[in-house]
């Protein structure tokens, strides 16, 4: 079962439905017991970094997500949900994130229109199971004004936009994040979610 975290930051239905289309049992929840029993966790989100963290704190989810990480439950953040996985964000004000990934989230420094909105081709930085069903230069869909600044070892793939390298897919251990929207990225997005499903199944098989 996939737990899609409900912390009042939008796009829950589209994310949940995308995982259901991959044949995964999916529940939208903020119930700690359900979250900690899940095979995988998805942290979606649209909006601002401080509001997201405030809502996670309000619903007692920061500690729950930390417990899930320590239990080695696969966690996938999407868009704003990816951003709060990092140590700090600088949107509106400096704000601590979950700290599951090293680095920070800062205003995009690009010679192009902000927000960064539309389709861009992925450039692979490392081999990773999440890329197993897609090809380099496949296109995915972005809508964002802030991006991650992170160590190279966390960078799975990126896009080039406005003369800058923008992290697209990041990860460390059992925590991964997509800056783009896989649920809006057509067949490529579906294939990335399929790879996430397979990672979840591998973890479940190992733990049984």
From TrEMBL:
<feature type="domain" description="Glutamine amidotransferase">
    <location>
        <begin position="4"/>
        <end position="196"/>
    </location>
</feature>
<keyword id="KW-0456">Lyase</keyword>
<dbReference type="Pfam" id="PF00117">
    <property type="entry name" value="GATase"/>
</dbReference>
<keyword id="KW-0368">Histidine biosynthesis</keyword>
<dbReference type="InterPro" id="IPR017926">
    <property type="entry name" value="GATASE"/>
</dbReference>
<dbReference type="GO" id="GO:0005737">
    <property type="term" value="C:cytoplasm"/>
</dbReference>
<comment type="function">
    <text>IGPS catalyzes the conversion of PRFAR and glutamine to IGP, AICAR and glutamate. The HisH subunit catalyzes the hydrolysis of glutamine to glutamate and ammonia as part of the synthesis of IGP and AICAR. The resulting ammonia molecule is channeled to the active site of HisF.</text>
</comment>
<dbReference type="GO" id="GO:0000105">
    <property type="term" value="P:L-histidine biosynthetic process"/>
</dbReference>
<dbReference type="InterPro" id="IPR010139">
    <property type="entry name" value="Imidazole-glycPsynth_HisH"/>
</dbReference>
<dbReference type="GO" id="GO:0004359">
    <property type="term" value="F:glutaminase activity"/>
</dbReference>
<dbReference type="GO" id="GO:0016829">
    <property type="term" value="F:lyase activity"/>
</dbReference>
<feature type="active site">
    <location>
        <position position="183"/>
    </location>
</feature>
<keyword id="KW-0315">Glutamine amidotransferase</keyword>
<feature type="active site">
    <location>
        <position position="181"/>
    </location>
</feature>
<comment type="subunit">
    <text>Heterodimer of HisH and HisF.</text>
</comment>
<feature type="active site" description="Nucleophile">
    <location>
        <position position="79"/>
    </location>
</feature>
<keyword id="KW-0808">Transferase</keyword>
<protein>
    <recommendedName>
        <fullName>Imidazole glycerol phosphate synthase subunit HisH</fullName>
        <ecNumber>4.3.2.10</ecNumber>
        <ecNumber>3.5.1.2</ecNumber>
    </recommendedName>
</protein>
<keyword id="KW-0028">Amino-acid biosynthesis</keyword>
<comment type="pathway">
    <text>Amino-acid biosynthesis; L-histidine biosynthesis; L-histidine from 5-phospho-alpha-D-ribose 1-diphosphate: step 5/9.</text>
</comment>
<keyword id="KW-0378">Hydrolase</keyword>
<dbReference type="InterPro" id="IPR029062">
    <property type="entry name" value="Class_I_gatase-like"/>
</dbReference>
<keyword id="KW-0963">Cytoplasm</keyword>
<dbReference type="GO" id="GO:0000107">
    <property type="term" value="F:imidazoleglycerol-phosphate synthase activity"/>
</dbReference>
């Amino acid at each position: 079962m996939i737990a899609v975290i409900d912390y009042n930051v939008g796009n829950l239905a589209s994310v949940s439905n995308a995982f259901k289309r991959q044949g995964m049992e999916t529940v939208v929840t903020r119930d700690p017991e359900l979250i900690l029993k899940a095979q995988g966790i998805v942290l979606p989100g649209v909006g601002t970094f401080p509001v997201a963290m405030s809502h996670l704190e309000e619903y007692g989810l920061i500690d729950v997500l930390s417990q899930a990480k320590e239990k080695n439950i696969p966690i996938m953040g999407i868009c704003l949900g990816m951003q709060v996985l990092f140590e700090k964000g600088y949107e509106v004000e400096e704000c601590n994130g979950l700290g599951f990934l090293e680095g920070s989230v800062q205003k995009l420094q690009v010679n192009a229109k902000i927000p960064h909105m539309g389709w861009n081709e992925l450039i692979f930085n490392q081999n990773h199971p999440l890329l197993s069903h897609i090809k380099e230069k496949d296109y995915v869909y972005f809508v964002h004004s802030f991006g991650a600044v992170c160590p190279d070892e966390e960078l799975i793939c990126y896009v080039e936009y406005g003369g800058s390298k923008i992290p697209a897919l990041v990860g460390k251990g059992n925590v991964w994040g997509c800056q783009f929207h896989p649920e809006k990225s057509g067949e490529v997005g579906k294939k990335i979610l399929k790879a996430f499903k397979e990672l979840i199944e591998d973890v479940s098989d190992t733990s049984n």
